[in-house]
């Protein structure tokens, strides 16, 4: 099985920055109190950060079994954070329309 840890680390760190931009723009525009958008983006930030952490551990681990476990955890955290970002985009779309 091909290792995905480096791909997860790269994508998670990029999307972590995207989530932080969402939260910052909501705070600047002062619309964060009227939607759940900042909550979903905040949860996504946490999950992306933990996904980065576990994918880094998977890359640095010397034991194959531990590497697979860390990679699986990072993968599921990434998927959950991606789901939160999709919900945030849906909320933005509904607010605009």
UniProtKB/TrEMBL annotation:
Keywords: Membrane, Transmembrane, Transmembrane helix. It comes from the Bacteria. The chain crosses the membrane at residues 7-28, 40-61, 73-94. This is DUF202 domain-containing protein. The lineage of its organism: Bacteria, Pseudomonadati, Bacteroidota, Flavobacteriia, Flavobacteriales.
